[in-house]
Amino acid sequence: MSTDPAPPGVPADGPDLGAVDALARDLAAARFTVSAIEALWDRGARSDATHPGSALRRGHRVPALRALEHAASDEQGLATLVRCFVLGMPVASDALASALPALDLDGAERLGLVAVDGEVASPRVDLRPYAFGDTGGEVEWWIASDLGELATGGALPEEYVLGVGGASLTLSGLLLPQHVEATLDLGTGCGIQAMHAARFSDRVVATDVSERALRFARLNLALNRIERVELRLGSLFEPVSGEHFDRIVSNPPFVITPRRDGVPVYEYRDGGMVGDGLVEAVLRGTAQHLRPGGVAQLLGNWEYRRTADGLADGLERVTGWLAEVGLEYWVVERERQDPGEYAETWIRDGGTRPGTPGFEAMYSAWLDDFAARGVESVGFGYLLLRRPAANATPRLARAERLHGSLGEGSGGLASHLADCLAAMDRISGLDDVGLRAVRIAVAPDVTEERHHWPGAEQPAVILLHQGGGFARTVDAGTGLAALVGAADGELPGGVLSDAIAQLLEVDPTELWEELGPAVRELVAGGLLRPVG
Predict the structure, then answer these.
(1) Is 56 exposed, middle or buried (0-12, 13-18, 19+ CB in 10 A)?
(2) Is a pLDDT exceeding 50 seen at residue 4?
């Protein structure tokens, strides 16, 4: 496959806005939307045993091609656009011209969307609808990026620009919904995080080391009529030297890749540093560019290293960096992989297939690289950071491992994080006397599960389950379960604890010494909420 780094035909100073407007009108007229495409897939699933959408996620497009055969006469334009830009296959030039009447083939070539050779038009970009919902409402955009492995049939070029991937969806789902004046999107790629940030910011500065990525970002911003975003070329924080922001968001190129000949370094995911040095650099830079009270939300990897003194815990390494630069933090590790699993994940992500000589050579290089630093495993997770207000002592210092599935809360993880952060702020400065005075209510998504030994009157185990957020499960004793069950927001926690102590015939001071820390933890996790 060619690794020609030439970006799509979008000038460095911006795309032809007339052509972009024509493209938007054509896409809307063809109903090039997530729901319309899913309807095509559902119709195909009724005709075949395999669902086309599921097959595409596994890297197979035959069921999708079969589904397009069932497109109605008024869906032929949509079917052509899907075949060309979603499945990445050549289409008949006259069919594409019919699907893009306002833009026409010449306009499509000027925007760098296709290459036309006589009767055949071949895609040069991946272009697809993207729908989501947040506290601002339901939205649908069109996102352009480089053609993926499914379309090219081989390993990706190092300058590849990723579209909306799994990490992008993860980060966008975490972004706090509060409005701010200025946001920095560090390493914007195709521009997706900057687009999300613009919904809650007066202005956004988006940076990337790749001019190719910035050209895609310009196209996507123009195509979706999103303003207030300024794009700047440069590495990490260099383009914003001396500037400060209320919000920093980043899906940085954190993947840990060997610095060896024969191992590709992908701009969209590899930061060019040894080990997790890129994450450390981003965290330290973040501290220098947040305004007091400002918040950063990032994704990252961190290494667990075996040393002469034992295991250097990955989370402890990260929180050590943050403590050094004086940032408050809430770090959540969502997954942990051994070196082999990590290598397999990212070699395959680059389009190199297992069983090939290239895969085995890269696998060996990855394992050698990890062994040289004594890496036992690699953690992946979310980081919510905050710069304390002027002259304030950092209070938020929370790091936890929450592996497993997320909950199904209707407000989404972003709202859950915002609620938990506000709740932690509410109680973090309170001593035990102050905490006892706070009225508390159990969150509406909390359920209780009890297990009894056969014939026993009292439960042996009482579990509290969180339906949303991080789907936490808490092993609660009798006293804590009773407090949570009675927490309806009417009475302070101290009053509830004393009443339970009387019922259980135990010392109230001793019970509160047990329940006080548990209440703090349940508030931090979102299972209990301060009221008033």
Answers:
(1) middle
(2) no
Q: What is the pLDDT of residue 2?
A: 37
489: number of Cβ within 10 Å: 12
In the numeric block, the tokens 């197979």 are attached to 60
Where would I find the beta strands (DSSP E) of 85-210? 91-92, 114-117, 120-123, 126-134, 137-145, 180-186, 201-208
* DSSP designation for 165: -
Distances (CA, A) of 80 to 65, 116, 123, 234, 368: 11, 15, 11, 38, 47
Nearest to 304 by CA among 200, 378, 247: 378
Residue 73 burial (10 A CB sphere; 0-12, 13-18, 19+): exposed
How does residue 13 score in pLDDT terms, banded at 50, 70 and 90? Answer: low
The closest of 454, 457, 426 to 440, measured between CA atoms, is 426
- Judge contact between 288 and 237, C-beta under 8 A: yes
Alpha helices in 259-378 (DSSP H): 277-289, 314-325, 339-349, 357-372
Provide, rounded to the nearest whole percent, the portion of the chain with pLDDT above 90: 77
Query: In terms of C-beta density within 10 A (0-12 exposed, 13-18 middle, 19 or more buried), how is residue 262 classed?
Result: exposed
Full-model pTM: 0.92
**Cβ of 40: how many Cβ atoms within 10 Å?**
21
Distance from chain centroid for Cα 355: 30
Give the three-state DSSP class for 205.
strand
Structure tokens at 361: 């050579």
User: Hey, CA dihedral for 189, 19, 197, 185, is it positive or negative?
Assistant: positive
Residue 188: HSE in the Cβ half-sphere, 13 Å Cα cutoff: 35
Helix (H, G, I), strand (E, B) or coil at 211: helix
pLDDT score at 269: 85
